[in-house]
Amino acid sequence: MKHIVEKEWLLKHLNEENVRIIDCRFSLANPETGGTEYEEAHIPGAVYFDLEKDLSGNVSGHGGRHPLPDLDGLIEKLEKAGIGEDTTVVAYDNGEGAFAARFWWMLSYLGHNNVYVLNGGFKNWTGANYPVTAEVPVFNRASFRPAINEAILADMEEVKAISQGQTENSVLIDSREEKRYLGIEEPIDKKKGHIPGAINKPWMQGLEEGHYKPIEDQKKRFADIDPEKKVVVYCGSGVTAVPNYLALKEAGYENVKLYLGSFSDWISYEENEIE
Q1: Per residue in 156-178, is it b (16+ CB within 10 Å) or e — as a string?
Q2: I want to staple 255 with a disulfide (CB 3.0 to 4.6 A). Which of 10, 96, 122, 230 is the partner?
Q3: Does 121 lie in the same domain as 25?
């Protein structure tokens, strides 16, 4: 796989100077859980990045529940972690895939291409009795110069144009589970339903027991979508859509964007329709 590494690879390269490991464990239900888990035990050399403190900005009127973070602050933390332009970075979560993928996407947005997600996450690592530690590493500061890749980020206006059929050869994917897509159930956001015109490809169907399914399986999931089309993925707040983004890239789709504000941003505009 192009953007995913296995635990055996990471174990082999664990102590290499040019490899950095990022712990992204998080619980949407209890935001402090990930940091606590990191303090108790993590992969040796791993630095903790918090979904809401490091990988998201402050919530405001628009932008959704997990908007873009302050990029200067994020870059500052990357540099403190010893991450420079040539560093190989591997992110992991507990095996959900979404939190590590959010970090992977953020670094891709900053123009850092040598970044990967650990398949199976921390649970798969510990399940193999691989080493863990409570020691918090300290690295020499690196220099990280971003090259923002706007081509992978979609905003509300672009999504609206696709929704209204104004943009040809474009597909909008709602990555949430079917009950939320259909508006049968909405446990988080203030409105139910989905962005008009979006098709449903639940993100969790791209994983099995914490592992991303093989490339051929991902291709079958998206077989009804022309690889030549532009694809924009969204979810509730721009986190669980990223596993679909990653899966699409693995399946060979080149023109893929993340609507980072997602449904929580869409519904913040009263004039936007909901299906």
Answers
A1: bebbbebbeeebeebbbbbbbbe
A2: 230
A3: yes
